# Entry
Amino acid sequence: MTNPIVTFRDVHKSYGDVEVLKGIDLDIAPAEKIALIGPSGSGKTTVIRTLMTLEEPTAGIITVDGQNLWQMEKGSKMVRANEKHLRSIRGKIGMVFQHFNLFPHMTNLENCMAAPIHVKKEDKASVRKRSIEMLEKVGLGDKLDNYPNQLSGGQKQRVAMARALVMRPKVMLFDEVTSALDPELVGEVLEVIRDIANEGEMAMVLVTHEMDFALDVADRVIFLDNGVIAESGKPAEILQHSDNERLQSFLHRFRSTS
Amino acid sequence: METLSEIFPELIKGLPITLLVLAGSAVFSYLIAFIAGLSRLSRNVVIRTFTSFYVEIFRGTSLIVQLFWLYFALPVLFDIDLGSELWVGILTIALNYGAYMSEVVRGSILSVAKGQTEAGIALNMTRFQRMRLIILPQAVRMMLPEFGNYLIQMLKATSLVSLIGLMDVLYFGELYSSTHIQQAPLVYLLTLIFYFILALPLIWFVRKMEAFSKKGVASE
Amino acid sequence: MRIGNLDLERIFPFITRIKENFSWETVTESFPIIFKGIGITLGLTIASFAVALLFGFVWLLLRKIPFKPLSWLFTWIMEFIRSTPPLVQLFFLYYGWPNVPVVGVTLDPFVCGVLGIGIHFSTYISEVYRSGIESVDKGQWEAAKALNYSAGKKWTKVILPQALPPTIPMLGNYLIIMFKEVPLTATIGVIGILQLARDYGAQYWRYLEPLTIVALLFLVMSYASSLIIRRMEKKINERTGKKPAGTAVQ
# Structure
């Protein structure tokens, strides 16, 4: 792949004695939409958390836009990146969380405006305009001055997505964003994700159990099993041609019968 | 019952000192609570350890013992002349309750849900920005009811300054009852009622704060 | 005073002053005298703790009286005792009670201490009981009703066995808190370690060392107790899987 936006090279992650990631190798192209699926415990959330700098890999190299994320040069040596280095790269990545993590003491609009103003030091007026646009795009233009606790789960998740989008990341990570929602609220969130995907500009990594949606929206499906990438390919290939037994039984469990 | 109208004016004479000690202790103890609470969360081992010593020592010893100790030790050991017993009283109460409240500060900050910090990281905020914009606004909401409770404790604590010679409400109560032994029970009862009246607005405040703190916070 | 290459006295000049003014001789002389009071101090702590535990239940019952005006009255009396200085309450018992018409009687300082501190803190203990009871799953009450338990059995066999164990760490904390309030009784003549220290000071004109000894004794004992309580808390957490109940510490 020429000029991938994200690369993983032999990334390992252990928690104490337990090794969760056992050597991940991955390239993500700019604007590529990837669905990351797998049984629980397989490490899929850990993969995107190491990219978002929420967890530090025990070994291996992650690069973003050509730059080494977790290591930096000091003189002639490579050392563990400091906070400054991490921050210089982290701004290119955005994340939407399973439990939304909206700021309860701010309105929806304020939630969206906080980071661009304080982190990117953009001017308030243009941030406000962009935030309102984003909230309108996710269908919540009428709830600008409401507080998160006044919203349903689906609405909260859409605000969370608007908040992440306002930062204009190059890569957007979705950590099981519908798993905490009541079934009837899942659809509205998936719709917004589909819209975002169709706009085309960002790379997206969706960790999800919504198998039908993932196979529909993704350019590539990656099946993670027991800490390694077991299968990777276009949705059609994965569905029809894979002879990986675990993958087939996994898909069988999660797909709705059509 | 004319004694009632004699006793109350006597007690009121002590009000300025009681209120002064309370106000002084409150201001300094909240200050100390924040400084110490945040210091215990610092990544600097030296700051953390020194603050922990302070907190453990003042939480582990008795207020009245601290009061007497500071009263005698400050001039002798540290050559510090605070000018008056008033400052010894304020300092002791502030140091004592500052230590307890620093734990409230620390606990509140820690109990703001981890997801909030992660959202802040995902939005690329600095540690300072996360503290200022996300964590502290929520933590302070949680601290308020406890701070209110401690304020009531500090009001009760002010009665101890009569033991180092300050002329507070209790002092005048003791004075009156020592010359009117027959009325001693009434005098002390009225003294209690006097303190209770002072405490009532604080009790009301705590109840209000408990309701307010419930909304606007994301905790585990 | 040196640590390695650092001369501490230059950095902290008050260390010299402390060395000059702190008499270790006084420490060794006064320690045995002061330590004799440990029995009274500890005894008072335990006795008042027992009173507090007992009266904690009494308040619970008084506040549950079906007759609204009475239960409201007792709630306010409880609040009154909780929010007013224990020192004044001690004075009331020691100086005031003997002069109460009809029922007044002179109370021994130790008894005053036990009653004063015990009843003062019983109001806090009552809150601990209350939150322990509230933390019992609502379904338990319904199950007891469905199984036709009598009120008495419901309390003794179902509710209390679940409500009380999680409160134990909190109760332990209050034991330590009460231990630290006990020296207040020195002001009404109880000869515990504080009063012995003050007597020594009055006699030999050296207050600093005796008071330091008292402070350190408290520190050691309350720190050791809090470690024990933390261990207990862990054990209880493991057993019941629930977090300990109770209002936050003073």
Summary: The domain at 2-213 of chain B is CATH 1.10.3720.10 (MetI-like fold). The mean pLDDT of chain B is 89. The CA atoms of residues 70 and 88 of chain B lie 7 Å apart.
